[in-house]
Amino acid sequence: MAAQSPNVRTCGRLLRGFLYHGKLKSTSKLPLSFSYYSTSASASASATQAAKKIPPSSKKGRLLTGATIGLIIAGGAYVSTVDEATFCGWLFTATKLVNPFFALLDPEVAHRLAVSAAARGWVPREKRPDPSILGLEVWGRKFSNPIGLAAGFDKNAEAVEGLLGLGFGFMEVGSVTPVPQEGNPKPRIFRLPELGAIINRCGFNSEGIQAVAKRLGAQHGKRKLDESASTNSTGIDEGKRGGKAGPGILGVNLGKNKSSEDAAKDYVQGVHTLSQYADYLVINVSSPNTPGLRQLQGRKQLKDLVKKVQAARDEMQWGEEGPPPLLVKIAPDLSKQDLEDIAAVAVALQVDGLIISNTTISRPDPVDKHLLSQEPGGLSGKPLFNLSTSVLKEMYILTKGKIPLIGCGGVSSGEDAYKKIRAGATLVQLYTAFAYGGPALIPQIKAELAECLEMDGYKSIHEVVGADCR
């Protein structure tokens, strides 16, 4: 039989000491890795005699507590024997245990807890490098992978570092409105778990651009300090992989206030305040939950709006990297004429990209038979996949592949992401699947996507973009 390691023997002493004496034995001989568990440990010579007088119920509680501590210590001993990549994978897999707990909570409460956990660093951090086949460059920015988190999850930029640390290639905060607003009355989020879908009518609930600017400014400053420290310590500039907020690329999604009568003014204010912290900007004119917003997708209205926002961005002072790219997020509920108009404006004004798509007000089968189908709001998740992918493909054809497109809507697997890319997407976003699947879904999607590329003989993402449109 193999000899026990010092860590395992120490675990045994700790556990026996707790079970028989009610206290952890002296830990002066413990290795450093166990110092956390031993800071308050002590024992007395008479502990054994005192233990005999303890009631059976107390002993049972102590037994359960001891077993729990034993598991924790055993876990610590195990961790000390595995490599970082294995441990990282274990942490992501372990998050699946928490998903059932979130499913029991009110959707908005669960959402708030998830954002708070990410903001506090209570989520795993991806330490494993992405498959090299997933790396790509768009708008002069390097993405380690094309999988991003869509706007709506971190509306107020509270958890940028934690969410990017999960392994997303990029993420989008917002939508952010100039003035704080509460959004629509609650309840406003409805789960359809058996369909992998959500209906929401949040209505741009936002803390406003000043609160978001403060958080992004702090994050941007931290990123600069980290870059400076890294360069000084190695003497080498390791390149510009990542963005202004951390290891991934950060997008800022701009919205308008519900009570605003001048939409362009709202978007311009967002550009002036937040563009300095963004790797790219998004004009959101497609949420179904703000009255009149989707009318801005009309040819004349969109053209006027984009011109004003572009002018606001370009009049600002920019360094070597230049201004952040400007994208427009559109709805899936558009006629062919609507799509042709949007494509014409995007090409003529050299819009940097389009996000396709937002949520839908339609209720495709089988959602139309669901008890919650009559709830007003936008539908997201698996039932949106076919509709949004069809619009994506049509827009790729209309723009002749000249404009980078971000595919969004119903992505829940690496194969889904692959289909979006083949339909014309350069990058892909998810939200609803992440809300249901949690952090473990991210490495799974990336691994599946890399496998799809390799099986079909592709060597990069760029080779696949629009493959189904050729």
From TrEMBL:
Swiss-Prot/TrEMBL keywords: Flavoprotein, FMN, Membrane, Mitochondrion, Mitochondrion inner membrane, Oxidoreductase, Transit peptide, Transmembrane, Transmembrane helix
EC number from the UniProt entry: 1.3.5.2
Broad EC category: oxidoreductase
Requisite cofactors: FMN
GO cellular component, one term: mitochondrial inner membrane
Pathway(s) this gene product operates in, as recorded in its UniProt entry: Pyrimidine metabolism; UMP biosynthesis via de novo pathway; orotate from (S)-dihydroorotate (quinone route): step 1/1
Main location class: mitochondrion
Family matches, as InterPro entries: Aldolase_TIM, DHO_dehydrogenase, Dihydroorotate_DH_2, Dihydroorotate_DH_cat, Dihydroorotate_DH_CS
Tree of life domain: Eukaryota
PROSITE patterns linked to this entry: DHODEHASE_1, DHODEHASE_2
Subcellular location: Mitochondrion inner membrane
Any GO BP annotation: 'de novo' pyrimidine nucleobase biosynthetic process
Sequence similarity: Belongs to the dihydroorotate dehydrogenase family. Type 2 subfamily.
Protein name: Dihydroorotate dehydrogenase (quinone), mitochondrial
